[in-house]
Each structure stands twice: as C-alpha cells, then as structure tokens.
Fold this sequence. Notes:
With 72 residues, the chain is α+β, with helices and mostly antiparallel strands.
Amino acid sequence: MKACIASRIAPVCLGAAGAKAVVAQSDARIFFSNSVVTGEIYSLDSEVRVCDESSKRDVATVELREGGRVFV
C-alpha cells in the first residue's frame, strides 16, 4: 500500500474486520504510526516470520503485559 490517504484506512479496515493486533517481522513506519493514531489495532514486532510458524485459519492470542512484554 502506498503512503497516501489509504494508509490510514488500512488499520481502520483491519479493526472493522475484527483484528485486534498485527504481528509482523517488520512493517512500514506509516502503518505503525496510523495504527497508533487511529487506535484500531496494535502493531507488534516479531523476531520470526509468523506466517512461517503458522497455518491458514490458525488463531493466535496476544497478551500484552506490563514492561513491554508480549506473548503470542
């Protein structure tokens, strides 16, 4: 997605679809920023490619803990 008005729509659409978080090895700074600004979803970094560790239709639970620790 190009950095334009549509970049702000992406987190909103993901939130509307029921997503609460995006866990990725990397994401564009504008996506992270717009996730924070809109408050729709959490954009979380991962040390591994989550798609390599999971299958389609897998469901993951993300637990946010004090001190910045995240458990998936």
